[in-house]
Amino acid sequence: MAKYIGTGLLLALQFFSVFPIRKNLPMERQHVTAMYVQLPVIGILMGGMLAASAFLLRDATDASSLLIGFLITFLSIAMTGGLHMDGLADAADAYFSYQDKERRLEIMGDPRIGAFGAIALILTITGKIIIISETVLSVSVWLILFIPVISRIGLLFLFSLTSTSKYSGLAAFFRNKANLSVITVFAMAWMVVVAAAIIVLTGWQSGIALLAAFLIASFLYRLWCNKNFGGVTGDLFGAYVEGIELSLWIMILFFI
């Protein structure tokens, strides 16, 4: 696996971030597996940029907490190119159509955004701005760094432990290519390391609160996907990342 790490990181940047990696990369089983294993590294890079930005804005400028909340939210969306927000909008349109599973999947594949998708985006973006602005002046920058990491570790578990709801699409392609057992093992290892780091750097209360929110939200989301869509899709993965990160910010606001 070690010799595929470099290619896996480039693939992860290419598919899951806005950072320009304009080259043809191999997509064999080992490379796709390494790509998913590297997702928490992408979370570290993004979380590091968010944490550094929050630190500089609140300690080196006179920016208000609301402005900082807006800028942090904007940066988190910009670094993914809006990929996860797009998935959230499509998932909302599909779910609130109240159609059967097959029709929901068709709606999710429609590139146009509907009323429920727009509402979901407005509520999520506004909610993030408000919650971050309420916490950013006092929260540890370490927690800001770890939020994108935790969401991508959860994505590894969701990807490896949940069947796709359709046989076509990028999510199905990647899942058929990847070594799911290896990804699950790495996801568990990442979780142990990150949980230990949070406890050491921010204390037991923060570690337990974030871990509890992560586990409960992930478990419920997986049940929801299976019940309403018969599995997961690329859009549902994107919605998961946004939902988990918002859940973690809410946990920080009320319990940390």
Overall average residue pLDDT: 92
Q: Output the helix-strand order.
A: HHHHHHHHHHHH
Instruction: Determine the number of helices (DSSP H or I, runs of at least 4 residues).
Output: 12
The structural class is mainly alpha
Q: How much beta, percentage-wise?
A: under 5%
The main sheet comes to:
none
**Percentage of residues in helical conformation:** over 70%
For the secondary structure, the number of strands is 0
Low-confidence stretches: none
Q: What global shape is seen?
A: globular
Query: What Rg, in angstroms, do the CA atoms define?
Result: 18 Å
- N-end to C-end Cα span: 38 Å
Question: How would you describe what is shown here?
Answer:
The chain has about 260 residues and is mostly helical. The chain is built from 12 helices and no strands. The chain has helices spanning about 5-15, 30-35, 40-60, 65-80, 85-95, 100-110, 115-135, 140-160, 170-175, 180-200, 205-230, 235-255. Helix 1 (about 5-15) crosses helix 2 (about 30-35), helix 4 (about 65-80) packs across helix 7 (about 115-135) and helix 8 packs antiparallel against helix 10 (about 180-200). The longest helix is centred in the last third of the chain and has 26 residues, at about 205-230. The radius of gyration is 18 Å and the shape is globular. The N and C termini lie far apart (about 40 Å). The mean pLDDT is about 90.
